[in-house]
Design a protein that fits this description.
With about 100 residues, the chain is mostly beta strands. It has a single domain, classed as Immunoglobulin-like. The protein contains no helices and eight strands. Strands 4-1-7-8 form a four-stranded mixed β-sheet, with no helix packed on it. β2 and β3 form a beta hairpin.
Length: about 100
Amino acid sequence: MALVTASCGKVQNKVTVVNNSALRADRVTFTVCGKDVVFENLDAGKKQSRSFSVTGDSGFSVSASLSDGTVATNSFGYVTGGAGAYGNHAEIEIAPDKSIKGKQL
């Protein structure tokens, strides 16, 4: 017999940063709906996740500052308010060549 639990709460939005570069990411800023989600001191080969809110229609923008002074940026994805405000997932990769790659899952 399986026990199934249900939640009446909304499904969170989640952004994950994966650092596949050889450098520490001193600061990664993910911006959506005019709000910043900040990741700091993300070592090479590590990843971190955070939740974010969707308050309207918006794309994603990302800025990453690496330990060698490199700053990389990218924009991707799109979310909408209302029914589309929940259950969004984004993944940001700091690639080995220090570029930023983003995808909406």
